[in-house]
Specification:
Order of helices and strands: EEHHEHEHEHEEHHEHEHEHEHEEH
Largest sheet: 7 strands, mixed
Number of domains: 2
Strand content: 15-25%
Low-confidence stretches: 1-10
CATH class of the largest domain: Alpha Beta
Strand order of the largest sheet: 1-4-3-2-5-6-7
Mean pLDDT: 91
Length: about 375
């Protein structure tokens, strides 16, 4: 897979496959992870195509998620001036060669530019705009978009394919990552992941509240495990001081920094839950089917919710603020207790003589309660 800076110098080779281009503004780790269902669906619907992701800014696939990238895309082109208008975009699309499909994941004016750039070309096109109204050479009714971005992106692919497709956000845990996670947290231990994110981010929640949450988790007999990304070492000092019983997993836990996301992912697969601000680590935990509690409100929390059915949120906007300092710690603790109760109820059904016969709910037939 090539990570290319400028389309004018991008070697296309002699690959005869038709091309599907996916446009996006940027692709931080969280952005890339919520696109997994769409990329999997695109691979399923167009197995003979080469998938090219084009973004105006950076892309996580060639970097933090490069171990996952070959499953999703064949080429990544970054740093493109996608706001220059239709003429530039038309040249860009034609330069890639054999383009048959274009999907624009953006919902702003940039989508109008790609719509105009593909006009008159033998290319199927759809954009993530209201009612998916910007489209060429595809049918389907003009229906409202889903709330969550992961579902919107996936729906774009379904419109291209003209059929329903699996919505699969999961990423299997690698064996090496699983073994590394087991060395840090033994099998059978009850633990919960906490991801405070970048301390200087506008999405950050105060550290004293994280400490309160961690102590509550520990008091329940659940070990708090803090996940700190490469740019988040500032948290270590207060965690060691205020929550000495917590485990910290960060760059010191791996020999190769590229392995750190997958260590987080493996830990999430056995965790009771992951409590995180709106960040890539929360989305990474969701990809392992771990329950995720997102503390948000600085951005549209419902729109950026992790792609998992086990998703909880505490939104600062519900408390009259867009700053996370407005999120009360007791509400977060209540949600954590709710998640623990939920997970404790998830036990396998008693069947095939594994034990005593299960007692089902009372059933009343032919009885009037009026």
């Amino acid at each position: 897979m090539n990570a290319l800076r400028a389309w004018e110098t991008s070697p296309r080779g002699a690959d005869p496959r038709p091309v599907a281009i996916v446009f996006g503004k940027k692709e931080a780790m969280g952005d890339a992870l919520v696109r997994i269902p769409a990329y999997r669906a695109l691979r399923t619907a167009l197995p003979g195509h080469r998938i090219v992701h084009v973004s105006a800014q950076t892309a996580a696939m060639p970097h933090a998620l490069k171990a996952l990238a070959p499953q999703m895309v064949d080429e990544v082109i970054t740093g493109q001036p996608l706001r220059q208008g239709p003429a530039f975009l038309r040249r860009l699309i034609l330069s890639i060669n054999n383009v048959e499909t274009v999907i624009d994941l953006r919902a702003n004016l940039g989508a109008l530019w790609t719509y105009l750039a593909t006009a008159g070309l033998p290319i199927r096109y759809v954009a993530n705009t209201a009612f998916f109204m910007l489209r060429h050479r595809i049918g389907g009714k003009f229906r409202p978009r889903p709330v969550a971005n992961a579902e919107r992106y996936h729906r774009c692919v379904e419109l291209i394919a003209r059929r329903t497709l699996p919505f699969d956000p999961t990423v299997p845990v690698g064996e090496g990552a699983r073994r590394a996670a087991s060395r840090l947290v033994p099998e059978g231990m009850r633990y919960m992941l906490l991801s405070p994110g970048l301390a200087t981010s506008f999405k950050a929640w105060p550290s004293d509240r994280w400490a309160t949450v961690a102590r509550h988790v520990a008091a329940r007999g659940i070990r708090p495990v803090f996940l700190l990304g490469p740019l988040e070492p500032d948290h270590r000092a207060w965690i060691e001081r205020d929550v000495p019983e917590a485990l910290i997993v960060d760059e010191r836990s791996v020999a190769d920094q590229d392995d750190l996301p997958w260590l987080f992912h493996a830990l999430a697969s056995r965790s009771l839950a992951c409590v995180a601000i709106e960040s890539g680590i929360g989305h990474l935990a969701a990809a392992s089917s771990c329950p995720v509690l997102t503390i948000g409100g600085a951005t549209r929390t419902a729109q950026w919710r992790p792609a998992t059915p086990r998703s909880w949120t505490v939104d600062a906007r519900d408390f009259g603020s867009r700053k996370l300092s407005g999120v009360p710690v007791d509400v977060v603790i209540d949600r954590i207790d709710e998640i623990v109760a939920y997970m404790d109820r998830l036990v396998p059904p008693v069947a095939f003589a594994e034990g005593a016969a299960a007692t089902g709910p009372a059933v009343h037939r032919g009885v009037s309660f009026q």
